[in-house]
Design goal:
Length: 333
């Protein structure tokens, strides 16, 4: 039996794991205590910390830094039932050679679905037309701007990581041109995905619809600035389901205010949510959602189930399907 514990937010435990997961791991696990939150851990560290061999975690979990890991000398594996492990990862985690698995691939699926849905509606500029219908109370003069449609449109993808690649694969079902910018991939690798490798500037020059999938790193903060935004084609749509910090909000707001023809689909912002006086709430050409593209509701249980399955592979000594390495994390969101 493997000594096991759950440390994450109370609501995160309920959403991701629940009692079903406790039952599912029981044949191979000895549960050391009730699921514990970061606040409880800080206020009164449980004695069983020293006995943990496998940790299940997720949203609102504490960072696994050197101090906390020193209290868990037997820890050998961490199963993170959410997306990016950046909130919990530390140098000490990798230096201890602790096995880490993440449900990022499962969390990616609803983001891909949200993105594809946004792109499909953007083929007909549905956001712009709905706005005109509401304002004019008429169906007249709806084709004042070009409509790219699903036949002949050009879609630009910024980065081809876990989500960007899946979006590219889905777009193969449509008779469109797909451009991509990813400095980590060669032109040949892009061609294998059915996309044309171009510069970031070309993405903004040539695309009818642009979707951002870039991880937020120190090199990518504010990547999308006024210079790039000024290159957007008439009637373009800009979709961001990645990270709000990729875009300079002041530049974005200024452009959208001056360019009512451009549509922004924003599921992420920086800060999140935007300040109460932000024009992102008011601009008619902004479709703003509260970070719902990733797993929500019952979708979260898919991530928990994946981590339970990983645990059983670990217990049987089998290769993991969702392992994350230090090198991989450097390229991930």
């Amino acid at each position: 039996m493997i000594n096991t514990a759950f440390i994450l937010g109370a609501s995160a435990f309920a959403d991701i794991y629940g009692e079903d997961s406790l039952q599912a791991i029981s044949p191979a696990a000895r549960l050391l205590g009730a699921p514990c939150t970061a606040a409880q851990l800080q206020a009164s560290p449980p004695a069983w910390l020293a006995e943990i061999e496998v940790l299940f975690t997720g949203w609102d979990a504490p960072r696994l830094d050197a101090e906390l890991l020193a209290r868990m000398p037997r820890l050998r594996a961490v199963f993170y039932g959410a997306g990016s492990i950046r909130p919990i990862a530390s140098d000490a985690l990798w230096e201890r050679r602790i096995v880490v698995a993440s449900a990022a691939a499962l969390n990616a699926q609803p983001v891909v679905e949200f993105t594809i849905g946004a792109i499909l509606l953007s083929f007909k500029r549905a956001w712009h037309h709905a706005r005109l219908v509401r304002a004019e109370r008429s169906f007249d003069a709806l084709r004042a701007l070009p409509v790219p449609t699903g036949w002949g449109a050009t879609v630009g993808l910024v980065s081809l990581g876990l989500i960007g690649r899946r979006v590219a694969e889905q777009l193969r079902n449509y008779d469109i041109r797909v451009l991509a910018h990813d400095p980590l991939l060669t032109a040949a690798q892009c061609a294998e995905l059915g996309v044309e490798a171009v510069s970031l500037a070309e993405i903004f020059d040539r695309s009818d619809i642009i979707s951002l999938h870039t991880p937020l790193l120190k090199e990518t903060v504010g990547l999308i600035d006024a210079t790039l935004l000024a290159r957007l084609r008439p009637g373009a749509t800009l979709i961001n389901t990645a990270r709000g910090g990729l875009m300079r909000e002041s530049d974005l707001v200024a452009m959208l205010n001056a360019r009512p023809d451009v549509q922004a689909i924003l599921d992420v912002t920086d800060p999140e949510p935007p300040a109460r006086d932000s024009l992102l709430y008011d601009l008619p050409n902004v479709f703003l959602t509260p970070h719902i593209a990733g797993s929500i509701g019952v979708e979260c249980r898919r991530m928990g189930r994946a981590m339970v399955e990983e645990f059983h592979r670990y217990a049987r000594g089998e290769p993991l399907r969702h392992a994350v390495t230090r090198e991989q994390l450097a390229r991930m969101a």
